[in-house]
Amino acid sequence: MKNATLALKSLHVGVALTSCPGQLKPVTCEFRVRIRCSSNVGVSRQQVLEKLDKELAKGDDRAALALVKDLQGKPDGLRCFGAARQVPQRLYTLDELRLNGIETLSLLSPVDTTLGSIERNLQIAAIVGGLAAWNAFAISPQQIFYISLGLLFLWTLDAVSFGGGIGGLVVDTIGHSFSQKYHNRVIQHEAGHFLIAYLVGILPRGYTISSLDALQKVGSLNIQAGTAFVDFEFQEEVNSGKVSATTLNKFSCIALAGVSTEYLIYGFSEGGLDDIRKLDLLLKGLGFTQKKTDSQVRWSLLNTVLLLRRHEAARGKVAEALSMGKSVGSCIDIIENSIDVSDL
């Protein structure tokens, strides 16, 4: 019996025979079997994922990864971790990408129009508010000068000391509060990162879906939203100056997963410019020529988009879990329950 343990608690067979002229006649036949089925492997996976969350909470990435690798590929363990079927790696032309419904211009040139619009509206509101205050309270030109000087000082302090984090926190919080489209886009973006990372074999460590969330979880003012990964193996390779092709492929796909998700849902991407810049810096740091960079990016795009299309339902469920603040272990369990092994 698949996915279950068969326990024979008692097996009792009784046959009583009586003699008759020329034959033996069975009088009674009793057959009693009691069967208990329990999904022990399923319980084991659940227990491991709960322990995984505890290890991640403690910051023990190595122990967390060891737990996952111990169940990796087992029939009722973590079948999907690192098991994604990927396209052959070669230099793909732009026409080949278009044949697969990928327009690189709409995907690799994200412009966050939502936050840009919010920033412009805040600036207009500040000017209108200043004029209204000037008329209402008869503020003198000298007072306006000092107020403007004070605001300029605060803006400079934020830019220098916090990298613009306070301003970003205000704008991002307003965006999540008043724009449902922006809120949903950010969640879908991070769900794409989470799902692709897991499928290519990189364990997500945690996630944030807003600047306020990042401030509360990690105490950072310089993060709007993001997904962190257990990447000590990658860091070790980078520090050694030699990054394997397998590792580079994984992180290239992860870097482009957010913009690819937005592209598939909305037809273009707004967030993820920082992801693209980091990938570009990594490839330049590894000494890639422009041709080799194009080859890496195009393959990663095609591979990532096809994976996201194939597992659209799983990505949607992960996004829902992220919006509810579910743990990493819970999100992994959702992925495992949403994807059939034959679809990998």
List the helices and strands and how they pair.
Layout: E1 5-20, E2 23-38, H1 40-58, H2 61-71, H3 94-99, H4 104-108, H5 113-137, H6 141-161, H7 165-178, H8 180-200, E3 204-208, H9 211-218, E4 226-229, H10 232-240, H11 245-266, H12 273-285, H13 290-310, H14 312-323, H15 328-338
Strand content: 5-15%
Radius of gyration equals: 29 Å
Report how far the terminal alpha carbons are from each other. 23 Å
| Individual helix count | 15
Strands ordered across the widest β-sheet: 1-2
Largest sheet: 2 strands, antiparallel
Low-confidence stretches: 1-42
Class computed from helices, strands and strand pairing: mainly alpha
The domain tally reads 2
Description of the structure:
A hairpin with a 2-residue loop joins strand 1 (5-20) and strand 2 (23-38). Residues 1-42 have low confidence and may be disordered. The protein folds into two domains: 46-110 and 189-343, no CATH class; 115-175, no CATH class. The chain has 344 residues and is mostly helical. The chain has helices at residues 40-58, 61-71, 94-99, 104-108, 113-137, 141-161, 165-178, 180-200, 211-218, 232-240, 245-266, 273-285, 290-310, 312-323, 328-338, and strands spanning 5-20, 23-38, 204-208, 226-229. Helix 1 (40-58) runs antiparallel to helix 2 and helix 8 (180-200) runs antiparallel to helix 11. The strands form two sheets. Strands 1-2 form a two-stranded antiparallel ribbon. A two-stranded antiparallel sheet has the order 3-4. The protein contains 15 helices and four strands. InterPro entries: Peptidase_M41-like. One of its GO terms (biological process) is proteolysis. GO terms for molecular function: ATP binding; ATP-dependent peptidase activity; metalloendopeptidase activity. This is Stress regulated protein.
